[in-house]
Design brief:
Blueprint lengths: L2 H14 L5 E5 L12 E2 L9 E2 L3 E4 L11 E5 L13 E4 L11 E4 L3 E3 L5 E3 L9 E2 L10 E3 L7 H9 L4 E5 L3 E7 L3 E2 L10 E2 L2 H11 L3 E8 L3 H9 L6 E5 L9 H9 E7 L2 E2 L3 E7 L2 E6 L3 H19 L10 E4 L11 E9 L2 E4 L9 H5 L2 E5 L10 E6 H5 L1
Parallel strand pairs: 5-6, 13-16, 13-17, 14-15, 17-21, 19-23
Antiparallel strand pairs: 1-12, 2-11, 3-10, 4-6, 4-7, 8-9, 18-20, 20-21, 22-26, 23-24, 23-25, 25-26
């Protein structure tokens, strides 16, 4: 199955099971959440015309070449008097332009005489250095649409509109399972044949960054009865996310449990790393089974599961930004799967980590992102290749 087909199917499944509950949270608690309702401006921005400069406000028609007396000083945060005809007002950046003034000149182009009168040294124009009312936003305008992910910029924007609270989609609840008899948690001594569980930490941290509520279900041994029990005990979650136990030839306990109590699709994805992927339901709860090799987990989570989770929350734009960059490597052997190589940018070129094995997480720690090499393509040094920065996938 081509990667884009798998993604399209997962997104369709996500749209069929949207998180519908919403919460009203303070801006302080809204970081990383998804806006549940369109945000409409309740005021004009700016609310009144204001000065873009420190300088002098005047009525252009009053300036005939004779210096003007200063009739008031207007600081930001203070209400001005209407401008007296034949005078100018000292004004500071962000202060309201007084009624009757139609022009602000910056102080650098003004000369103050000993008697305090002001002469303007450059030609003046109506409206110069004035930020008009409603220039940024008009009351009633839609400023953000439902499905927008709220980061520092969006929260800042909501604050400019005086919004203290926002309606957001409730967090997605994800249960994380690591499967494998060989797994043991960091901090314990390694027994024979054991390896440390890295996927658990990788996924739990990543899910938290994505604003999910994580139920960490620990390590599940390769055993059907225990798998059944564990799945049944997970409780009320929106997604069960497991790793391991989906490789060809392995006793597939997760698959067996899903076959008994739900439905199951086993996908062979044209993706490398990360060919096998399970999608199913356990008692109505969607289940995604990612391959166990850490680099496979990373790639299939980042490219397929992340967009699925965002779409469940109604996020419209789930496609990570990618940039075309010159390849700093040769890829002579065309593949039958789309490869995502762990890569970084050095001197304007994309370099790839020497060991691209799916078991090697160090490759990703060295890297700054993924280079996509499409099926059948053989990019050479200097050819343009798409680069997806990890920063796009992690947040
Ligand atoms: P599996 O899909 O269960 O056959 O696992 C594929 C490979 O990934 C095997 O080498 C596993 O030992 C390894 N693996 C599976 N789960 C994890 C995990 N949570 N952390 C680190 N390695 C894992
Ligand atoms: Mg396993």
């Amino acid at each position: 199955m081509p990667v884009e087909d798998a993604l399209a199917q997962l997104l369709a499944l996500a749209e069929a099971a949207p998180i519908q509950e919403t919460e009203n949270v303070s801006l302080a608690d809204a970081e990383g959440r998804v806006l549940a309702r369109d945000l409409v401006a309740s005021l004009d921005l700016p609310p009144w015309p204001n000065s873009a400069m420190d300088g002098y406000a005047l009525r252009l028609a009053d300036w005939q070449g004779e210096p003007l007396p200063v009739s008031q000083r207007i600081f930001a945060g203070h209400a001005p008097q209407p401008l007296q005809p034949g005078t100018c007002a000292r004004i500071f950046t962000g202060a309201p332009v007084p009624a009757g003034a139609d022009c602000v000149e910056m102080q650098e182009n003004a000369e103050v005489a000993d008697d305090g009168r002001v002469r303007f040294l450059e030609p003046l124009k109506v409206d110069q250095n004035i930020r008009p009312q409603g220039q940024e936003t008009r009351q009633g305008e839609q400023v953000m649409s439902a499905g927008t992910r709220l980061g520092p910029i969006e929260l800042g924007l909501a604050a400019t509109l005086g919004q203290a609270r926002l309606d957001v989609v409730r967090k997605v609840r994800v249960a994380v399972l690591s499967t494998g008899d060989e797994l043991i948690e960091p901090g314990l001594p390694l027994g024979p044949g054991q390896i440390y569980n890295s996927n658990r930490r990788l996924l739990v941290s990543w899910l938290q960054r994505l604003g999910c509520e994580v139920r960490d279900a620990g390590i599940l041994p390769d055993d059907l009865a225990r798998t059944r029990e564990c799945l049944a005990a997970l409780g009320d979650v929106d997604l069960i996310l497991s790793t391991g136990g989906v490789s060809v030839g392995e006793a597939d306990y997760l698959g067996a449990a899903l076959r008994e109590a739900g439905e199951l699709a086993l996908w062979k994805l044209a993706i490398k790393p990360g060919k096998p992927l399970t999608f199913g339901h356990f008692r109505g709860v969607p289940v995604i089974g990612l391959p166990g090799n850490p680099a496979s987990t990373l790639v299939t989570f980042g490219l397929l599961t992340r967009p699925y989770l965002l779409r469940r929350q109604g996020v419209a734009d789930v496609t990570p930004l990618r940039f075309d960059m010159p390849a700093g490597f040769d890829w002579p052997k065309p593949g039958t799967r789309r490869e995502y190589l762990r890569a970084r940018i050095e001197q304007g070129q994309v370099r790839i980590y020497k060991n691209q094995s799916s078991g090697v997480l160090r490759s990703a720690a060295w890297a700054e992102g993924l280079v996509e090499v499409r099926e059948g393509s053989t990019p050479k040094q200097g050819d343009s290749v798409p680069f997806i920065p990890f920063s796009e996938l992690l947040g």
